[in-house]
Design goal:
13 helices; alpha/beta; TIM Barrel; 18 strands; eight-stranded mixed β-sheet; five-stranded parallel β-sheet; globular; Urease, subunit C, domain 1; 2 domains; 412 residues
Length: 412
């Protein structure tokens, strides 16, 4: 996976380390990188004399940020008509630009929860023909039931069958499948196309036209069929699950590993999630206006995320960027909103956007914290995000981005 030469050393010196585990900041910590991985972390490390020295004095050194829910759809404003008329090729080019904008803002991993573009971006990064983009963890084609969140009711009815595993649409990048057999086939289709994980919708959504965020989607046996089929090839399942307790519990019982949006939870649901090592993924930024206007959905979201956090369950930051509500590069606003509205300390928000993000992307063993043996996915930031979490929103404050040991961004 690494493009760095092994044996090549870099030493980051003099910065204040926030390692992503939730441990307190350590000033003057050294980080030794060998090739693509972190070799050692500590004070006054013995290092090879040929190491390239990176001076981080006066700055914060922390894991690269992770957005656990975006869509590289390449539509700029997200309107329905735009999705229909935006040519696929233009969407792909827009998504290249969006990915680069994220890396420039300090994001070293982006989990794309539905868009075929992400499959191509990932491939281009792996082939080394696209640089300056984050690591991309991609669902590709997204599974939805007929009359589900990723069904597109503005299309004629006959399109539903066309999109059942045969000709994925340019419009929503979804596969419509109903019943165990179709769910198994659609899962295999998504895997064949290159999915790193399977994305399903277990509720309707605020952004869908034909259903409601409270609608329960998929039956338990359909969810289990998808989870089992993905598990046969070592892959996990992520659920879009907005505002139904029944759907949240059914998703977790069915074996889903991340519950995204999670606008409605209760103690039983959270306990179940903790038992089964399920990660919740926040998307506060999408509902910012609802929170600030005091609307019911905003209140529910705050109650849910506070409850999840208080229970000690794992929550990772997502943003749903790519749907048109917020823009690529603004992803770190999510951290501020968790602090402002959901009882997270700045450190908790950083853990949610680093270590917990890696778990939500199913790569928690290899990245998300600054610890020996993990990929050197590191950012060096001007200022102290523990004092002001909003500094992470300004790409100019992100002085350096290191991805798998390579310097991917360096401010002059
Ligand atoms: Zn989404």
């Amino acid at each position: 996976m690494s493009k760095s030469e092994t044996g090549k050393f870099k030493l980051i010196k003099g910065g204040t380390l926030i390692d992503g585990t939730g441990a307190g900041p350590v000033s003057g910590a050294d980080i030794l990188i060998e090739g693509s991985t972190i070799k050692a972390v500590g004070k006054d490390l013995n290092f090879s004399p040929e190491a390239e020295i990176i001076d981080a004095t006066g700055m914060t050194v922390m894991p690269g940020l992770i957005d656990s829910h975006v869509h590289f759809r390449g539509t700029m404003k997200g309107g329905v008509l735009e999705r229909v008329i935006n040519p696929r090729e233009l969407g792909l080019i827009q998504s290249i630009s969006d990915a680069k904008t994220m890396l420039n803002a300090g994001y070293t991993t982006a989990k794309c929860c539905g868009s075929s573009n992400a499959l191509f971006l990932k491939q281009a990064v792996a082939e080394g023909i696209l640089s300056g983009a984050p690591r991309i963890v991609a669902a590709g084609y997204w599974l939805s039931q007929t009359f589900g969140h990723a069904d597109a009711p503005y299309l004629p009815l006959e399109y539903v069958d066309i999109r059942t595993t045969k000709h994925p649409s340019n419009v929503s990048n979804s596969l419509i499948c109903d019943g165990v057999d179709e769910c198994i086939k659609a899962t295999r289709y998504a895997l064949r196309a290159g999915a790193d994980f399977i994305k399903i919708s277990t509720t309707g959504g605020f952004s869908s036209l034909g259903d409601r965020p409270t609608d329960v989607q998929y039956n338990l046996d359909e969810i289990k069929a998808i989870v089992d089929t993905a598990a046969q090839v070592g892959k996990y399942v992520t659920a879009h699950c907005e505002m139904s307790l029944k759907a949240a519990k059914q998703s977790i019982m069915g074996g889903v590993k991340t519950v995204d949006h999670a606008l409605l939870t209760d103690d039983e649901c959270i306990e179940l999630a903790m038992e089964k090592d399920v990660v919740f993924v926040s998307t506060t930024i999408v509902f910012r206006n609802a929170i600030e206007a005091g609307r019911d959905v905003g209140k529910k979201l705050m109650d849910s995320y506070k409850r999840i956090h208080k229970a000690g369950a794992t929550l990772a930051t997502g943003t749903d960027t790519g749907l048109g509500v917020n823009s690529f590069g603004q992803n770190a606003q999510e951290l501020e909103l968790l602090v402002k509205y959901c009882d997270f300390s700045p450190m908790d928000a950083i853990v949610a956007a680093t270590a917990n993000g890696a778990k939500a992307c199913f790569i928690g063993d290899s990245t998300g914290t600054i610890e020996p043996g993990k990929y050197a996915d590191i950012i060096i930031v001007n200022g102290n995000p523990l004092e002001d979490i909003t500094i992470l929103q300004n790409a100019e404050n992100v002085e350096m981005v290191i991805l798998e040991g390579n310097i991917a961004k360096q401010n002059q």
